[in-house]
Structure formats: structure tokens, C-alpha cells
Backbone:
């Protein structure tokens, strides 16, 4: 995968990692933004998804593991996929590991990922406070 989140600072208790289930056959890279599905199952994000966090470690396909830890509280470098983002705006997913300025509807439906800590031009990387 590309454009994985890069840890700038883990907040709380080392990023407030929460365990989720995942399929044994799934491969997920550390830093991948994870989509929440039911029942408490994490998969790699692919678009405008409800997120459950950022993968805390690599998960290899068919390695026997059926759990993955997700950071839920920290500051990460994330890539902006669309038009500019202004400091303080809430961001949500725009594609696999990509963000954009969240709409009111996205925020209301729980799709907000975090708050931009700096201005970001289109296609640029910037710091985002992720607090899920």
C-alpha cells in the first residue's frame, strides 16, 4: 500500500492502541488507516470509510494472526488528496490512506478522522491530530 501514516507523536497511553480482529489472509502495512466493519473487524481503508485507527504494526497475509492493533490517539503525517486543508479543519478519508476536508454529513456520520494541525496544499502531506 502507499501513503501510510507516519507517526509524529503518540498521545495518551502510547497512542491508545485498541485491538481489532482481522482475517488471517489479510496483509496490512504499519501506518495503514483502518476501516471499521462489523463485528469489530478492521480492514484497510479504501475510500470514505468509518475508521477505527491506524495500524500499529505490519500484519502479514496467512501468518496465523487474526488481530491487529490500531493507534487511536496521536499526531500523524497524512496525505491530502484533494483541495487545500486549513489548520483546524476536521478531516476524513478520501481514498486509501488519503484525507480531505470533512463535510458536515461526514462528521455527523462518524467519518471524521481528526483535526488538521497545519495548512496543507492539495497532494501534500501534513500533521493531523487523530483522536478516535
Residues:
Amino acid at each position: 500500500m502507499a501513503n501510510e501514516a507516519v507517526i509524529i507523536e503518540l498521545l495518551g497511553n502510547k497512542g491508545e492502541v485498541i485491538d481489532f480482529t482481522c482475517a488471517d489472509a489479510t496483509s496490512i502495512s504499519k501506518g495503514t488507516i483502518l476501516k471499521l466493519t462489523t463485528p469489530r473487524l478492521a480492514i484497510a481503508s479504501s475510500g470514505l470509510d468509518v475508521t477505527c485507527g491506524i495500524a500499529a504494526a505490519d500484519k502479514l497475509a496467512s501468518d496465523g494472526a487474526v488481530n491487529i492493533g490500531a493507534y487511536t490517539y496521536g499526531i500523524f503525517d497524512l496525505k491530502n488528496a484533494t483541495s487545500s486543508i486549513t489548520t483546524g479543519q476536521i478531516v476524513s478519508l478520501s481514498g486509501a490512506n488519503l484525507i480531505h476536508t470533512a463535510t458536515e454529513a461526514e462528521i455527523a456520520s462518524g467519518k471524521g478522522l481528526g483535526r488538521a494541525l497545519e495548512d496543507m496544499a492539495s497532494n501534500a502531506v501534513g500533521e493531523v491530530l487523530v483522536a478516535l
